[in-house]
Please model this.
Amino acid sequence: MNEEVFTLTKPEAEYCLRVCELAALGMTGLDLSNIFRVLHGRLEAELHKLTDLDVSLGAEEKNHLSKALMIYELLVREKYDVLREHFNLQNIPVSKDEIRQRATVIGMTIEKGPVDVSALQKKLRYSKRIPTRKLYISDLHFFHDSLNHRMDMRGFSGYEEMNAHMIRQWNDHVTKKDEVYILGDFAISRGKAANEVLGQMNGKKYLIEGNHDKFLDDKEFDRSLFRWIRPYAEIRDCRRQVILSHYPVFCYKGQYRMTPEGTPLTYMLYGHVHNTHDERLVNEFIRITRSTMVKSARQIEEHPIPCNMINCFCMFSDYIPLTLDDWIRLDKGRREEADNKSDA
Model:
């Protein structure tokens, strides 16, 4: 046993037992799942021999419990993108319904009354803070009613229904601490209306100016609702450079940068073209560029140009801001589907 020892009451131990079970289930296939299985067995053994004494655990076990509680919370809240990014989880091996059912069981099977989870987190020195994420989305076009029956064909009865749906999708998937980069054309409105919408939306918001963002010129618009407003930006996201522009940038800065293993180090995120013929032209450029072979001064053999341009059009993600990794996966799937259709 480690020098630092802490104790759990029987209800807390039972709660942690089931949290470890859920965390291990959700992390199956990773080393973390083995950690939680071992901790699960340790808690079970302690509970079997428990009489009036509390369960005593060491510092390392306390740290594992703290991590289990975070993973449990992320699973229940369906924050799978955070699990992928921070715990290297690629696939959830259980269904959402099973996760919800097991989460309900956790609250129902404690015999000696409910557990004060906040007190338990404090005891474990566990921070409930979910890691801050960088999220991206483009061309929301709040208040732009004509997009429901022209061009995008969004299909809402009017901008009121469209606005409500987009705000709901946003707040269901964005936390207050997330950073969201909007790649232009946020709203077709006056400044006061834009203020009202932004005031309802979670997260720290950043705006790349689009050609329709005329509300920015309205004196009534509160520019402090965005952390910054720029025509173009370059940021870092998990050791990768991200180029942000409302318009597609065909020969973007860092386009050729890759690791020695061939992993891209730069991505160009854009909007503006929605899902129109212009997007199809951009896709054709990407296809041609990716099939073009080059040889750099640092490489012996020729390799295709890594053209990583991604359209973050809101309809592609069902109006949900996504992480860079999620956009990469979505873009890959969308291109593979288009290629399959063209081959058919």
About this structure: Residues 237 and 334 are 23 Å apart (CA to CA). The mean pLDDT is 86. The longest strand covers residues 232-237. The chain has ten helices and twelve strands.
